[in-house]
Amino acid sequence: MNKDKPFTSVSRPKILHFHESNGPVDEAIYGLMEKAGGIRQHKYIREMIIAALKAGQEDEDQADLRLMNTTLKEMRFTAKIFGPYREVKKVTVFGSARIMPDVAAYQAAVLLGKKLQEAGYMVITGGGPGIMQAVNEGAGARYSFGINIQLPFEQKTNHIVDGNPKSITYKYFFNRKVAFIKEAHAVVLFPGGFGTLDEAMEVLTLVQTGKRNLIPLILIDPPGSSYWKTWIDFLQQELMVQGYINPPDFNLFHLADNAQQAVDLINQFYKRFHSLVYAGKKLVIRMNSKISENKILKLNASFSDILVHGGKIISSGPLPEELDESGMDHLPRIIVDFDRLNFGRLRKMIDVINSDEFDTQ
Predict the structure, then answer these.
(1) At 346, is the pLDDT very low, low, confident or very high (cuts 50, 70, 90)?
(2) Does the structure show a pLDDT above 80 at 152?
(3) DSSP letter (8 states) at residue 145
(4) What CATH code would you report for 86-269?
C-alpha cells in the first residue's frame, strides 16, 4: 500500500466500545499487538487504539487530530526519557529566562542546582537560559533534565542540556507542564515573568484541589529580592481577605531566602513521609519509619477537622488496592478517612508526621 496515498472511500463506521465487545476489531487489535511484540499492558494499549479509531470516525478536522497525535507522541517520549530514572527524586525549578549570570538570582540558582545534586536529587528545568541554565549548570548535565518549548523567540536550549539524551522539546505547553509536575518530587520557584507566575499558580491549583499529590513547593527570594514576599502579601490582602482562598492554603508552600534552606525543606518533607495513594475512599500515607500509637492518637485529635464524619486515622499494613505498586509493602502506613477538601491542613499534618511533635510515648 502506498502510505502517501490517502484512502478515497470511507466505509460505514462500526460502533466501537472501550469494553471488549468489538468482535473482529478487538481480534485485529490483539493480533497487531502480537505482531508488534513487547506489549506488556495490553488493556491500556488496546484502549488507546480504540480511542484513536473512534477519533478517526468522529472528527474530520485535521487540526483536532494533529493535536491528539502530537500529544500522544510527546507524552510517549516523555515516559521513555523519564522512565529509567523513576527511582530518583527530581526537583523542578522555575524562574526567569532573562536573568543574566552576573546577578544574585543566577548565582543562587547555580548553588541550588549544586546542593540538590549533592543531596541526591536530579533537576528538571525548562532547558533554556537564565534561571534554567543556572540550575542545570549547578547540577551538571548528568543530573539534569531539560524540557524545552518551541518558541519563535527567547527559548533556545542552554549548553548544559543541548544534545543531552535527557532533553525534550515540546510543541504544546500543556504537555510540557504535565512533565514538569508529574515527574517532580518538589518544585522550587525563583522570581520570573508571566510564565513563572503561571507555573506557580498551576502547581498551587493542582495541589490545592488534590489533582496532584502533595509535594514541597518552595519560593526563593534571592538576596535583595522581595518578589515572592510581595506576591504572598497580595494573596493575604486580596485573595484571603475576600474569601477566595483559606488560611490553611498557605501551608501548601514555603518561602526561602537561600538554596540551602530550600534543600533542607525538601529533605524535611521526606524525612518520614514517603508517598500517598488513595485506596477506594481511604487515604494511605506511606512512611519511611513507623510512628507511635500515641502520635496517631494526637493526630486524630489535632486533625479531626479533615476527617469524614465518624472517620479516624489508624496504623496499617499495605491494602489490597495497592498491590499494583511493587516494592512498597515493607513501608509502615497510616490510613486516613480524609474528606478530600482541605489539602492545606493535610499538608500541615504531613509536617507534623515528619516532626518530633507527639513522638513521645
Answers:
(1) very high
(2) no
(3) E
(4) 3.40.50.450
The DSSP output letter for 307 is B
Element of type H or E holding 333: strand 333-336
| Cβ within 8 Å of residue 350, ≥6 positions away | 214, 269, 273, 285
**SS3 state at 141:** helix
Give residue 37's region: left, alpha or beta (phi > 0; psi -120 to 50). left
Residue 284: exposed, middle, or buried by beta-carbon count in 10 A (0-12, 13-18, 19+)?
Answer: buried
The DSSP-derived string for 158-227 is -TTTTT-TTEEEES-HHHHHHHHHHT-SEEEE-S-SHHHHHHHHHHHHHHHTTSS----EEEE--TT--H
Burial of 249 (0-12, 13-18, 19+ CB in 10 A): buried
Q: Which three cell numbers stand for residue 76?
A: 510517549
Helix-then-strand count for the chain, H and E: 11, 11
Residue 225 · residue 199 · CB < 8 Å: no
Q: What are the structural domain ranges in the chain?
A: 24-83, 86-269, 273-354
Q: What is the pLDDT of residue 264?
A: 98
Q: Per DSSP, what are the bridge partners of residue 218?
A: 188, 254
pTM of the model: 0.91
- Model confidence band, residue 361 (pLDDT cutoffs 50, 70, 90): low
Q: What average pLDDT does the chain have? A: 93
Q: Kindly tell me if the per-residue pLDDT of 132 is higher than 90.
A: yes
pLDDT of 10 over the 90 cut: no
Backbone angles phi, psi at 29, to 5 degrees: -65, -45
